[in-house]
Task: structure prediction
Amino acid sequence: MNSVFPILILNARPAAGKSEIIRYLMSTPLEIRKERFRLGPIQVFDDFPILWNWFEEDDILEKEFHLPRLHSTPDHYFLKPEYWDLLIRRLSLDYERFCQVAAEDHTAILEFSRGAEHGGYQAAYRYLSDKILEKAVCLYVQVSFEESLRKNQARYNPERPFSIMEHSLDDEKMKSIYLEDDWVQFSEKDSNFLVVRDNKVPFAVLDNEDDITTRGGPELGNRLETILQDLWEVWIQEQEPTQLERK
Result:
């Protein structure tokens, strides 16, 4: 029987606090992290570095080799909406490679944002593998678009556009891609589970409109502990029948 979550999917609008939560959890000593948050040694799978690499490669192809761009326009919009789904398939493949070498008590954190403009979370989750969905739980960090926009502007560092903690979208991209969020529609079928194909993924929502993730400290730890312990109870009850079937 698992003692930690094998997979935590972390969703939210950009700059909502996902990376701050990961930083807090990874800075927590392992034994305390297991006890309070049900998370083992953490391996993060984030689609932003993949996306940024595509943009950089396209810029090189265009400017240095005078070849067509493969993924994006010169102002870094995707050429095809399917590339949003391709990012999710890449995360799934990277996770499956990780499983070949990882110990059983590790926790994989899959982090991504999706706006309704390109199918939202309802589309994205369809491209996660069953191997992920069968073992995952989801934490959604709830902020309004206005709060997401504020924090996105605040974290902007023009010297580090590739940085997980300091990258930023311009206001036009934020509005065109992330103004509308389909989380409510995606999660409304069941109060405890996201239903994807034949999989039921337990989920919880962390309200971060008060920006507790920037303040951090014990207050953030207590809020995370309450939510993740409740999520653990839902997840472990769902796993028990599966464990019995495998015996």
Q: What stands out?
A: The chain has eleven helices and six strands. The chain has a mean pLDDT of 92.
